[in-house]
Amino acid sequence: MKTLSISKSMQICMAAILFVITVLYTNKAQAQTTTAEEHTIERTVKGIISGTDGPLKDVNVFLKGTITGTTTNGKGEFTFPTPLNTGDVLTFSYLGYTTKNVKIKKDTTFIALSLTEEYVEFVGAPNSNQPYKSKQQKSLEE
């Protein structure tokens, strides 16, 4: 049997380790690329929003953290005006109902959501049935 010198066996060992590291690094890079591609898939999202008495008109639907949004029509339907990516969050709000957030998943194209009523107490001055009187001086009348 032939014996190899220590330096030759070290070269073979280093080459094998370098090959394994290269293979593992390449597989990791491919996995990250796939995940990034899933986030860039844009899709149009539609939906219908209802409450306890049926469809809700004029529900605010907007992309969280932006001013981009729309409102529902008389049938509670909406179509979001811009394409959305995986991970985006839509916020649904309507006076007298609890605000809800919905995270867009990779297969989300339609959202059917039911908002729950929220007790809202309006605070204001009581009606005194007295005519309004201005606190400004009446210098123009003189």
From TrEMBL:
<dbReference type="InterPro" id="IPR008969">
    <property type="entry name" value="CarboxyPept-like_regulatory"/>
</dbReference>
<dbReference type="Pfam" id="PF13715">
    <property type="entry name" value="CarbopepD_reg_2"/>
</dbReference>
<protein>
    <recommendedName>
        <fullName>CarboxypepD_reg-like domain-containing protein</fullName>
    </recommendedName>
</protein>
<keyword id="KW-0732">Signal</keyword>
<feature type="signal peptide">
    <location>
        <begin position="1"/>
        <end position="31"/>
    </location>
</feature>
